[in-house]
Structures
1.
Amino acid sequence: MIYSKELKEKMAFISEIEKLKIVYRQNGVFDKSRAENSAEHSWHIALMALVFQEHTIFEKLDILKVIKMLLIHDIVEIDAGDTFLYDTQGKDAAIETEKNAALRIFGLLPTPYKEEFISIWLEFEEKTTPEAQYAASIDALQPLLNHLITAKENENPNKLSKSKVLNKKAFIGTVSNDLWLVAQDLVEESVTKGLYEKY
Amino acid sequence: MIYSKELKEKMAFISEIEKLKIVYRQNGVFDKSRAENSAEHSWHIALMALVFQEHTIFEKLDILKVIKMLLIHDIVEIDAGDTFLYDTQGKDAAIETEKNAALRIFGLLPTPYKEEFISIWLEFEEKTTPEAQYAASIDALQPLLNHLITAKENENPNKLSKSKVLNKKAFIGTVSNDLWLVAQDLVEESVTKGLYEKY
């Protein structure tokens, strides 16, 4: 059967991103049977962005753009893998790999999606627009909740402390007072559960 | 720490939907290590809906609504489980359970999200609007691709035939000529791989 080059390119992209479902993250899932993956994480944050959209400092947000951003922002991990937030060296090393991955994977798409997705991905990475800042704050909030729900009591394999975690997440407060309250509350609950050192 | 009732309700919903990541479907993932779950499936179809939006018979589509629909449509499976498409009895039995699940889970949210999500979920189920019909066609197309990519050669445990599959998917042709061509092509490739009987 023959169909257009444009459709074939879209199918190549849609087939390629199947692989994001086997890129695993540090946190787990509800029954502790396996690690969370970047595809389901992306689904979770897209829904969070929808319901928290009125809790930011911004007067106007293009919520469709935020959702697109969150749905595609981790696709580069198909080539680059997931880097643990607190692994600073790993984060630096990943920058070039992730950029090449964006060009390769979004480059599978025809125009205008190729250009749009590369541009939205870069916007997310640069974090200068309201949409990118809001998306980043949601992307930073979700792991706090997910970790609290799915981690076993008193498990802190990376010896994370409350102050280290709050320091990494503090930018949420520049985007949303409400979400920063939620973040601090999740960290407190996690300390109580023994997931972070108290100081 | 104290924050508003509205935020607490939103967090209750966001925590509850964590469980969709452990609702497993019939198909697998790329490395065949486990079954696909409904959260990552929802992520996949949201992105498909984005890039295929100009391939329908409809002049205008509210793509944000389509994406919301696809992100939330399977959340009811947290209570009802995933029902295999070809299990007709199971599908009928699930209707009431799924409706109650929608009321319970979307009901965790404050106004206006509670009403909006219940209404969008019902719209998807009723399939009378362009958005719901397009969303349903994408939801039906993805498993064909996913199955072709992730299934082992010559595995057809449910003795599915090409005609049975095409029959279940034929409504895609009423929404999009292009996507129906793609669907038929995926089925042909799957027959070649031994995943469906030829007749």
Note: The mean pLDDT of chain A is 95.
2.
Amino acid sequence: MISQKLVKKLADKKYRVETGLFFVEGRKSIFELLDSDFDIVAIYGTSDFILAIEKQLLSLKKEVAGVIQSCISVTEETLVKIGTLKSNNAGIAIAVQKKKVSLEHILDVAKTDIVLVLDDVHDPGNLGSIIRTADWFGVTHMVTSETTADLYNPKTIAATVGSFTRVSVTSLALSEFLESVREHGIPIMGALLDGKNIFDSKTAKHGVLVMGSESHGINDELKQYISDAVTIPRFGNAESLNVSVATAVLLAELRRVHI
Amino acid sequence: MISQKLVKKLADKKYRVETGLFFVEGRKSIFELLDSDFDIVAIYGTSDFILAIEKQLLSLKKEVAGVIQSCISVTEETLVKIGTLKSNNAGIAIAVQKKKVSLEHILDVAKTDIVLVLDDVHDPGNLGSIIRTADWFGVTHMVTSETTADLYNPKTIAATVGSFTRVSVTSLALSEFLESVREHGIPIMGALLDGKNIFDSKTAKHGVLVMGSESHGINDELKQYISDAVTIPRFGNAESLNVSVATAVLLAELRRVHI
């Protein structure tokens, strides 16, 4: 039994690391969780929402009993108290974090498709929005630096709007990772301000795409690994683009040219 | 003389409307403000930052005396107290809001270039990020529904990273506005989930591009005005894209095909 006190603690990375658990808030995200292969250990929800879960599981043709047994009926006030949302008329589900995907598997994916790599994206809202964008453009694997925001931060999970169930995000030491990518002869694209114009250069159909931090771009230490520096051409005067916006424009273009 | 008390009140839309003033926080944004044609009425800053302003004005070849006279030296603690940032080692500048751009002028722009229209974008962070993206892609005029977040909200201003000085944003009743656009025979593009694939359809070189709200897309009342419904093709499983991300992908594509 997961106590209300533990749920509240899971907003804190320290307790997420200690327990291997995390939580998901709100109707839409919990429905996506039910439809995924994440292990759910408990759901605090309003009694209406617990009925809705039962219906949803039936419509998904999933086994109902186990999940319903782990549901605990509480008031909306309790949900707000133990969670992070300002209002929550549905529930909070507690689930088990996924095991890390192996380096070998990620390299295999990068041999035929795009793997998105984030260096130092601190803002969980940006990370979540990027996961959602990756999901839209069919990117299934991401690698993040150890300094990037935590996938299981409640703000990240909320900003993915359910896409955290479909995109695998693995935190790795990026210089070692990119070293391996290079050894395997896989193209390493990177968003830099002085790269080739993405709109009229030949881009790789597969490989990794590295995006840097909100304020400093790609780390100097990592720049040496970039084999294809790319840039979104500027038509006006803004100094830079938000990292989640830049990622979206690049992924859209990579997909467009290789449809 | 603008009192500290009034500055604090300007975080509130009611007082911004009453006074016609707004504030800008932090080094980069204030430097962009100094380089713009906004009228600055006061700057609260650390003494170091006031020296930096003097230098900046000299390097911009701008008149120094007037602005420096309106500078008031305060501590970092005071800046945090009267502003909205968690830390601020630079300053807060109070400036006069711009006059509304006329409908005629906006229609003129839409006859040769893209005017971006936002319906119901509630989140000031999204609005700010969209203004920054518009600035990057050389879009100089935006129109927002009266239900969209306020341009002069401190969160919007911060998220534009200075682009609020270069992109004009006019709040209008959208159905009347789009009625006029249509009467002038100007193309009205709109982002809809069932529009034409933006990657392989002929898009207009000029006209207005309408983006809907984060959760409900373009209002039913406004859909009738859309002459060119466009969609970003989906390669994966996310249900939708963040509105600032979708705007960026569409603007990038409109610029790419008409370079």
Note: Chain A touches chain B at residues 125, 129, 132-140, 161-163, 166, 199, 232-242, 244-245, 248-249, 252-253, 255-256, 259 (CB under 8 Å).
3.
Amino acid sequence: VTESAFIESLKDLATHPAARGLADDAAVLEIGGRCLVLTHDMLVEGVHYLPDDPPGDVAWKLLAVNLSDLAAKGARPVGALLGYTLSGDTGWDSAFVDGLNTALGAFQIELLGGDTVSAPPGAARTLSLTAIGEAPGPAPSRSGARPGNHLWVTGTIGDAGAGLRALRGEIPSDDALVESYRLPRTRIEIGPDLARLVSAMMDVSDGLLIDASRLAAASRVSVEIDLATLPLSTALLSSLGDSLDTRLAAATAGDDYELLFTAPADRSLDLLALGARFGIPINRIGEVLSGSGLRLHEAGKPVPLPARLGWEHR
Amino acid sequence: VTESAFIESLKDLATHPAARGLADDAAVLEIGGRCLVLTHDMLVEGVHYLPDDPPGDVAWKLLAVNLSDLAAKGARPVGALLGYTLSGDTGWDSAFVDGLNTALGAFQIELLGGDTVSAPPGAARTLSLTAIGEAPGPAPSRSGARPGNHLWVTGTIGDAGAGLRALRGEIPSDDALVESYRLPRTRIEIGPDLARLVSAMMDVSDGLLIDASRLAAASRVSVEIDLATLPLSTALLSSLGDSLDTRLAAATAGDDYELLFTAPADRSLDLLALGARFGIPINRIGEVLSGSGLRLHEAGKPVPLPARLGWEHR
């Protein structure tokens, strides 16, 4: 509650239109007739990644979580500024740089600058990154969903969360699920084309349900999700089996970095064609209705909202 | 040494011209015919500020250290992205937001976005900020100094370092010096006009001598500083007395956030007129020569370089 109060107090300061009331994934700044998208996400050891995750994977994740925000605004990557806390562990630092090099190449983004600081011994590593992108077309917000729109999501949901559970020893380990947790894909390649078709878009980072409820709140609409249509991977299904519990766990786990978006019903074929062109699964998982809040059902049978919809503040 | 190796390995990744080889205060990105300047600096509790510094002052300093980099590139502030680590101390958080509000207004910069994360209990606070500016004219680098140029600095040097010593109880306390440490001024107002007159410019953050030696290295020239011409405040002189030790301490203390720049000799009158127009002292403190490295003298008498020129990595 006090964390929410803190963020609310920051919103009072962010009055510029480019800030989008701090209610969006990124800032959108018009300059010289171009549309710049700016986002800044941090990773804290033990909070956003596990202390024994490979350093190169942490570098990848640091870029990916920021690029996912650019994707949600339909932006192509331009450059990144890195904030790095030296740990005193030179092996870790050097493996991080190797992974960063790989990730910069994979995501085709340039390292433009940043800051390297010392931290007190034993402090949890805190890594930050600012990603700058440019949107060639419209930069969708979270607030454009309209009653009658359909709700869609890219890829599959819940793999990263299951990977985290596997790393914690709560479920049997599975390479594909662990990789989903440590090396999120991001949908940066399809973002700009999707942006032309959607009415609202955001990335799924804190959990499908909490993120969908934020989209509903920003758009002042109600969102209804059919859990039966939730796209689940075969890796997830063979690890956890298919049940309502599995589907609710997947929908609240977070770290998916898939795109969640709404679009008018007459865009459905265009959306499916776009997904096919990029080889990215796109699935319709619900509806936008008038009213407010989030409702769940499973193939028509109402499902009560779980107590926890996802991560509140990380 | 290993920290330097880390930064060298990052430089290998930063091949885009906008990165300026990570050898500058900021990235300079041309977009849509406009010149964007981007910088990202972090503050770590116990490293860059004292744990009992007032939270509002920490917010001010977080903005100021970044805006000082914009000033050095002749850029005007556009917006900022804040990376904030929640501490669990709501009083601290709330005082930080109040100070941030004051500083945003004073520096006329907009809060555009960012990230708020939780940190493990007891972790040192790590705060990050990305500042985006726009240079209306040229964005000077560190590498443009030429033999025959004069070396100049704005304001006075060493006040913040003496303020830190006062807060640590090493010298008697003095309100003006403490304020210089906690609430650095930055030279954001004069930066764009200075940028039209200088051949190279940077801000003094790690210590006048170490920063001057970096400017010399980036420009492949030698810099000679006359310590007798170092501008010192009356507060500093009455606290520490005037001596070579005082002048060397001031020149290696850091946290000044003044602008250090070089210019052809025939620009001297223009520079002095500009300083007078803005009410900002501008003093000539040395010469640019061919060769390499840094040399010191005091009114013609050679002074050996101190063992420590300033902060290496913070």
Note: Chain A touches chain B through 69 residues (CB under 8 Å).
